[in-house]
Amino acid sequence: MKTELMSANYAAARAVVSARVEVVAAYPITPATTVPEQVALLYEDGVYKGEFIRVESEHSAIFACVGASSTGARTFTATSSNGLLLMAEGIHWAAAARLPIVVNNINRSVSPSWNIHVTHDDSMSFRDAGWIQFYASSVDEMYHTVIQAFKLGEDERVLMPVMVNTDGFVLSHTLSTFDYLEPEEVDKFLPAYEPPHWKMDPENPVSHGNIVFPEYYQEFRYAMHEGLLNVHKVFEEVERDYKKIFGKYFGGPIDCYKCDDADVIFTSQGSMGAEAKDAIDELRDEGYKVGNARMRMIRPFPVDKMRELGSRVKGIAAFDRGVSYGFGGHVVNDIRASLYPTEYRPLIKSYIGGLGGRDVTVDDIKQIVLDTVGAVESGELGPEETWHDLLE
Amino acid sequence: MVTTKELPLKEYVLKGNAACAGCQDMVALRHAHKALEGDVIQVVPACCTSVVQSLWPKSGLGIPVLNTAFPAAAATASGVKAALKAKGNDHTQVMVWAGDGGTFDIGIQALSGALERRTDFLYVCYNNQVYSNTGTQRSGATPLHAQTTTTWYGKTEPEKMLDLIVAAHEPVYQFTANSSYPRDLYDKIKKAKEFEGPKFGHIFLPCPQAWNYPVEKGVEIGKLAVETGYWIMWERIGDEFILGRHSKRYQDPEKRKPIEEFLKMQGRFSMLFKPKRNEAKIKELQDYVQHRWDLVMKTFT
């Protein structure tokens, strides 16, 4: 392990090398572009030993991954925003085919209007597609999550694709240190991928994806659901082993900071979760019992962990950097739904903001947390949803 | 040309598949696999072949088949090939088996990309000139005046000259074939195996369901397509163009049967003859025959 200084995108290309990926297929889109650029350079220099397909669209990128993964290869691609949306057919396909492809999605606003900065609407619109979804808060976390993603997705109890999300520009183009692992080191953690059930092989011919009538279709879908539910246990094992071998741990599906005695917690996805730690520290200094619950994994949704938090806190300030139009923040509604079957009734306030890359500063986060603290103190929920920093 | 006696006996298109009676796709596929002899991974986008290969958990094909999305055949095959390469397998042939809709229309971008990347694979378009899997809608391959369920009074445009589009990508080997000439098809698939790089085969095949003719007439109609000069059999190895011996004799317009003989056997063209003969439209189709010959010969020779 050695410390390197790179942007998240450059580090993602290094994760491809570290994890001994066998096939990468990718198409450029800002801000993901530097991932395939770096993969190309590492490929041409012979550092990355797998195959690299410079496809003509994102639709072809994901389906080249489907073809390669179906033939038993460890497979990776990177994309953003409209590129991810063009992959839609293949995103659902990969999950239903139980292919442990890893996609590094660099969160970017969806058009129109053209905006290359971060909003989470792109990946959030695939919450129901059967993918495991992570949101990273640092270059280091992104790099190691990609390596962990292969171990998690390829586990026979899971066999599902994984999307590792990083905030456009905030992480994708910002240099930071990370702990790089040589492939020989990663070998101790991640064995070669061997599909346990089927692959394209003339020695053992099978048809994959042929017609399934209503008699069986539902059972295949149930198996997908089970695969994702198994992630909770398997990810615990993955993180435990990773910590044991490399000493790296990023906090489970919800990374909690000063939550133990907190009355109010702030939840968010992506890089903002790192920013929020500073806000929490300042608020603690000012005497508020507040904590930061960084949502690392939103599919499968960490229901048990959220209930455990919900049993202890009086208020949740849930921040979404995206919107389910007509129903509100993506993750806040998952938090509400998780707690509904329990007796725990913390006040849950939804905040939406930071769209299109608008800055959300430590002061903004403090203001949001204090708004929820005020609601808890007064016992009045007030507005269920607030668009933070919305121009009149 | 291979003799019938010399064709391998082993079958890869198995009994009990769900193809319609008289399906010429199965004739073409059967002979293609006899030529490939099992060391193949077949990629199939949405098309008749994705339906007729049977219902899960059974398979009507004795080779590995990867079904994929409608626009994605060539991209999926690129991934399969890359995976084989990554694993050191340099012998297994990757073959796309796609219909005309998945090739001419929704799949053309992925096809163009894979050809341009010089992907080492064989892409076969089996062309029955219609979206027959979804029930006979017009495609970019549907000929002028053919009746479909989206062109009830006949298509108003002729088919796309796909072969010229493919040729512009300069594949290492390109051929046309016809399910009524299965030994010729066998030879061409066998030849395709010998080349490294992108290979493209375009097989014309009649469809009793979509073209509306008695199921036993498929071979006859396929032959008439060649004998009227409507379908031209040729190969292209790099820049070298070879006019097929089945078509050579019909290069001379005098030797061709009138297009009417091909048209009148098919319900999809019945409006050209009933309730009364439409000379103008029949002539347009007759003229199209020479138009294709002129374009192919001017481009390739």
Protein model, in words:
The complex is a heterodimer of chains A (392) and B (301). Chain A is of the alpha/beta class and 392 residues long. Chain A is built from 14 helices and 16 strands. In chain A, helix 1 crosses helix 2. Chain A is globular. An eight-stranded mixed sheet of chain B has the order 2-1-3-4-6-5-7-8, sandwiched between helices. The longest helix of chain B has 22 residues. Chain B is globular, with a radius of gyration of 18 Å. The model of chain B has no long low-confidence stretch (mean pLDDT 97). At the A-B interface, strand 3, helix 3, helix 5 and strand 9 of A face strand 1, strand 2, helix 3 and helix 5 of B. Strand 9 of chain A pairs parallel with strand 2 of chain B, so a sheet runs across the interface.
How large a portion of the residues of chain A is in β-strands, by DSSP E? 15-25%
Quantity of strands of chain A, as a count: 16
Query: How many helical elements of chain A?
Result: 14
Distance between the termini of chain B: 24 Å
C-alpha end-to-end distance of chain A: 51 Å
Average pLDDT across residues of chain A? 98
Oligomeric state: heterodimer
What integer value in Å does the Rg of chain A equal?
21 Å
**Content of β-strand of chain B:** 5-15%
Q: Radius of gyration of chain B over alpha carbons?
A: 18 Å
Largest interface: pair, residues per side: A-B, 42 and 44 residues
**What is the helix/strand order of chain A?**
EHEHEHEHHEHEHEEHEHHEEHEEHEHEHE
